[in-house]
Design a protein that fits this description.
The complex is a heterodimer of chains A (211) and B (500). Chain A is globular, with a radius of gyration of 16 Å. Chain A is of the alpha/beta class and 211 residues long. Chain A is built from 6 helices and 8 strands, in the order βααββαβαβαβαββ. In chain A, helix 1 runs parallel beside helix 6. Chain A has a 7-stranded mixed β-sheet. Chain A has one domain: von Willebrand factor, type A domain (Rossmann fold, 3-Layer(aba) Sandwich), CATH 3.40.50.410. Chain B is α+β, with helices and mostly antiparallel strands. Chain B has a 6-stranded antiparallel β-sheet, with no helix packed on it. A 5-stranded antiparallel β-sheet of chain B has the order 3-4-5-7-6, covered by helices on one side. A 4-stranded antiparallel β-sheet of chain B has the order 15-16-17-20. Chain B is globular and about 80 Å long. In chain B, helix 9 packs across helix 11 and helix 11 packs antiparallel against helix 12. The chains are: A alpha/beta (211), B alpha+beta (500).
Chain lengths: 211, 500
């Protein structure tokens, strides 16, 4: 059985302090708990969580879904958003962790990447260097989420065509977002239509999809 | 409290639902009725839902429901097919009204460690049971059932599929997502019937679920809809999906997912492995797709090991059909076994079961292969006693008995039924209540195996030329001949004692 690696890249910069980071923690719990109720996900999904503010932290190394133990994600009182650094760490991890197929061994499914930020990258140089590198990695899907009014979609669009915006940063919005993430992860095991276009599952009302 | 919405259905009934979506599928959002006796599924995409789609649904809840659910043996089919019974329109959205699933199809114990996954009360999606990892690591033992559970579930699914096909209908998306099973209570039910395909009339709108899509459908999916070479789901592809389901429920692995690598790109690799390059992992001569145990997660063992648990452990009748499904018919749809053939072979296989002597065995039963020194393939416990086997013959013309290619393995306290004693009786939906009562039973009595006559007026010990009245017994001896029934189709048995 192939593994389906899922990477979550979460913004923990100062502006996330308070209700937003609480909501993210609740959302992560809900995400893991919802995926664990899905027999397909239990068979294949592995999860990794990376957070970024002025530092990049691997909160959860790539772990089989049933073994995931979440620790609380925290953020500093203030500080920059080093998304570029985070992408660099992620690319290195992906190179190391993803098992590629060889003529004798079956490898992983192409990994999924969910990026969430409430602002714009503070390390623009690094970000510009890493954006094309990220695109060169074989992700099955990259979905970037801009949370709240200060999120800048123009940067996220440099990473992927799949950009969603969360208008609010309250707990309901994050909850809806993480529920949707779990639908996206599970999509591969659902019935496929006769027309070929692969669509993301319908987004909840709180999410705006920017293409 | 959410609002309760109402609308008058197309059959003129008042339909109510709570305005809170309880589940979202590929096509629909589903809402509970206030008393939870039915659900309403609204189709999300108004554009795709055209007049033809409405017409199709109204035919399913109309003509076909009348024919199948309100027709002969309808009570029986209603349990196996969760049939939509009405349609409704609300603010331009079209919806379908479907009965709620029976409570046996929701987990009552869930997962191990006090249900650490939190699935108690959730639907018993078939994938929970068809996956070795879920079976080995997550499910509470009380949810898992035994080999007899999965044989009976496979019988019920074959029978339900047979009924659809007999009416000219194809399900078009048979998969573990669209089948609920209850191993504990040995029940099964086909759901998502609103996608039914009426050949020649309504084209399917889904290709199927990954793992179950037939190779020819995958092979031609790049062609535009309407291209004469494009193959869409049909009764023939249902047959493939049914065979895959049965294989997975009985062996907890996928018949085509083996060790062979077709492409470095996992998406292309999968498409070839399920499509034009599809190859049975247990093919008798081409062994290139046998599972590579180095690539297998430890939790998938022993089921992923086709040397340890080959499909032949399921006995000769099922082996023959798996060969037809995954060798002869994999790329030649006309050669695939029909649902009816599956039903027959599965029923005959139940009569080959022996209880495992190990009280802790995971499967509790195994199919006796008529070999010397039998042992349970799941826990390796040997069977140590002499074992009577009854070989059935039946009369085609007076006094002339021909073999039925059907045998019954005897175990202590096993019952004999009319479908054993007469070739013309089948244990299916048509069986009348009196026919469901046993006519005899087998016990080991004072060191000898005997058949006790409960309701066999014709029972006759041919070898010793002796009538056996009701209430008396006949001793089973090697090469003994016993006549069970003198009527047309009545059977004669030839006893074989297998000494271990």
């Amino acid at each position: 059985m192939r593994r389906l690696p899922v990477y979550l890249l979460l913004d923990t910069s100062g502006s996330m302090k308070g209700e937003p980071i609480q909501a993210v923690n609740v959302g992560l719990q809900a995400l893991i708990s919802s995926l664990r109720k899905d027999p397909h996900a239990l068979d294949t999904v592995y999860i990794s969580i990376i957070t970024f503010d002025k530092e990049v932290k691997e909160c959860l190394p790539l772990t089989e879904l049933s073994n995931v133990q979440l620790t609380e994600v925290t953020c500093p009182d203030s500080g920059p958003t080093h998304l570029g650094d985070a992408l660099e760490v992620l690319c290195k991890k992906v190179d190391k962790e993803i098992i590629l197929s060889t003529p004798d061994h079956k490898g992983d499914w192409m990994p999924l990447l969910f990026i969430m930020t409430d602002g714009k990258p503070s390390d623009l140089m690094k970000f510009k260097e890493m954006a094309p590198k990220l695109k060169s990695k074989n992700f099955g899907n990259v979905i970037a989420c801009g949370a709240g009014p200060k999120a800048k979609e123009e940067y996220l669009k440099q990473l992927t065509n799949n950009v969603v915006l969360l208008d609010n940063m309250d707990s309901a919005a994050f909850q809806a977002y993480f529920k949707w993430v779990s639908d996206v992860v599970n999509q591969g095991s659902k019935s496929a239509g006769v027309t070929e276009d692969l669509e993301l599952p319908p987004a909840p009302e709180e999410l705006n999809i920017v293409i | 409290m959410k609002d309760v919405l109402t609308a008058i259905s197309h059959k003129g009934k008042q339909i109510e639902w709570i305005d809170e979506c309880i589940a979202s599928g590929t096509m629909k959002d589903v809402f509970f009725s206030p008393d939870k006796s039915y659900v309403v599924g609204f189709y999300r995409d108004k554009d795709k839902f055209d007049a033809r789609a409405k017409d199709r649904l109204q035919t399913i809840v109309g003509v076909y429901k009348d024919r199948i659910i309100d027709g002969p043996n309808g009570d029986y089919w209603e349990k196996l097919l969760c049939w939509p019974y009405d349609t409704v329109e609300y603010r331009g959205c079209f919806g379908v009204v479907v009965p709620t699933y029976r409570k046996d199809f929701f987990f009552s114990h869930g997962s191990i460690n006090n249900d650490f996954l939190g699935i108690k009360g959730k639907e018993k999606n078939g994938k929970w049971f068809a996956s070795a990892k879920n079976q080995n690591r997550f499910l509470d033992t009380r949810e898992k059932g035994d080999l007899l559970s999965y044989l009976r579930i496979s019988i019920l699914l074959s029978r339900a599929t047979k009924r659809l096909h007999a009416g000219g209908l194809a399900h078009s998306d048979l998969s573990y997502n669209n089948v609920l099973i209850d191993p504990e209570g040995r029940n099964a039910c086909i759901i998502d019937i609103d996608g039914l395909v009426v050949p020649g009339k309504y084209p399917p709108d889904v290709m199927g679920t990954p793992d179950f899509v037939a190779p020819e459908v995958i092979k031609t999916k790049h062609l535009p809809l309407g291209d004469p070479n494009r193959i869409l789901p049909s009764i023939l592809t249902d047959r493939h999906a049914l065979s895959v389901l049965i294989y997975m429920y009985l062996l907890f692995r996928h018949p085509l997912k083996g060790g062979k690598i077709y492409d470095q790109d996992p998406v292309k690799d999968e498409e070839m492995a399920m499509g034009h390059k599809a190859l049975f992992i247990e093919h008798f001569s081409d062994k290139s797709n046998r599972p590579n145990l180095n690539d297998v997660h430890p939790a998938e063992l022993p089921y992923a090991d086709v040397d340890k648990l080959p499909y032949t452990i399921l006995g000769p009748y099922l082996k023959e059909l798996f060969d037809k499904a995954f060798i002869d018919g994999l790329h030649d749809p006309q050669k695939r076994p029909t649902a009816n053939e599956w039903e027959d072979a599965l029923i005959k296989t139940v009569d080959l079961l022996q209880p495992c002597l190990n009280p802790h065995c995971s499967h509790k039963w195994f199919v006796f292969d008529n070999k010397l020194a039998p042992k349970c393939p799941y826990c390796n416990t040997p069977y140590t006693e002499a074992l009577p086997v009854l070989n059935f013959y039946s009369s085609r013309s007076k006094g002339n008995y021909l073999p039925d290619n059907y045998r019954l393995m005897i175990y202590n306290n096993q019952y004999l039924y009319q479908w054993h004693t007469n070739r013309l009786v089948f244990p299916n939906e048509k069986l009348a209540d009196p026919q469901k009562k046993p006519v005899g039973y087998f016990v080991k009595y004072q060191g000898k195996w005997v058949l006790v006559n409960q309701n066999l007026p014709d029972l006759y010990d041919v070898t010793n030329k002796k009538e056996i009245p009701i209430g008396k017994y006949v001793i089973l001896e090697d090469n003994g001949q016993i006549l069970l029934d003198k009527a047309n189709g009545g059977r004669l048995v030839l006893v074989q004692m297998v000494n271990n």
